Amino acid sequence: MSTMTTSVESIYQELDAQGVVRLDGLIPPRQLAEMQRAFEARLGQLRWSNVDGFEKTEPYRHMVSDVLTLEQGFVDIALHPLVKEALHLYLGDAYILAEAKGWRSLPTKKDFHGWHGDAWYCQKSLDYIPREVKLAYYLTDVRSGAFQYIRGTHRQQPPREFESTEISQDMLSRVAEFKGPAGTAFLFDTSGIHRQAAPILEPRNAVFLNYHDPSVPIQDESVRSYRYHPLLLNAAFLGGLSTEDERILGFGEKARLQTCHCRKSRYDRSRRFYERLHDLNLWADHYGSRAVGKIKRIFNR
């Protein structure tokens, strides 16, 4: 489906009927190249201390958080007119961009990210399935480990993880698979059943932007982890925003703000070990530079 020839109404209708819609041609080639370079730079090393890089919370993926701070294109795509208009029809006029993250999925034969619907809202508090949409796009060519979505499964049941034995042949016959070159993009209702296919034969870089109504109560786990914190933004990329753009990016939105929140470490022993090792390195640098300074002063007399 070409975004150059397809109407917003037809995108909305396919999203509403199928739960997923492909958006070819959304990202201009030059902009895509700049986004690829910025994303790749963060994948060079693990983030720690004052060093920018990726976060690692699971074996098979490297996470790049807060992608809107990396390059102008990430903000522009999040606020693309076609995307905004389609989301307005599907989500209403109160939605915001609640999360902006990317991942490098590593080559593996393991089906580590199996069939599921995204469990994001507090199911104990609501007797209906609130709408949430993600805009996803690839920063690498994807020939394996592609995103798969079972069409027509959105808003049918509260989202959860599914065993492979629960996926019938009829459901498998309705799987849409999104292989494609870098820049391939699609919108999907996150309550529908989807997964990253296995095996993954080459690294896959992808970005997922999460849009929903901030007034919807979120699940306890997301509250504890502060998953949907206010977006981190780069002031250099925020010129020329409309009032609607500012709303979508959450300007002034404090519904989910947690002041003084500090994320707790899952691996406290490892953290303490590396903190002490880092202290030793800093002291070694400190005394080493002092020793070098003394030697230079002696020979310069």
Task: Describe this protein's structure.
The protein is of the alpha+beta class and about 300 residues long. It has two domains: about 10-260, Jelly Rolls; about 265-300. It has eight helices and ten strands. Strands 1-8-5-10-4-3-2 form a seven-stranded antiparallel beta sheet, covered by helices on one side. Strands 7-6-9 form a three-stranded antiparallel beta sheet, with no helix packed on it. Strand 2 and strand 3 form a beta hairpin. Helix 1 packs across helix 4.
What's the total count of β strands? Answer: 10
Helical residue percent band: 25-40%
Q: What top-tier CATH class of the largest domain fits best?
A: Mainly Beta
Share of residues in strands: 15-25%
- If you compute it from the alpha carbons, what radius of gyration comes out, rounded to the nearest whole angstrom? 22 Å
Overall geometric form:
globular
Q: N-to-C terminal Cα separation, in Å?
A: 76 Å
Secondary structure tally, helices: 8
> Looking at the chains present, what oligomeric state does this protein adopt?
single chain
Give the strand line-up of the largest sheet: 1-8-5-10-4-3-2
Structural class: alpha+beta
Order of secondary-structure elements? HEHEEHHEEEHEEEEHHH
Overall mean confidence score, pLDDT? 94
Tally of structural domains: 2
Top keywords for this entry?
single chain, 2 domains, seven-stranded antiparallel beta sheet, three-stranded antiparallel beta sheet
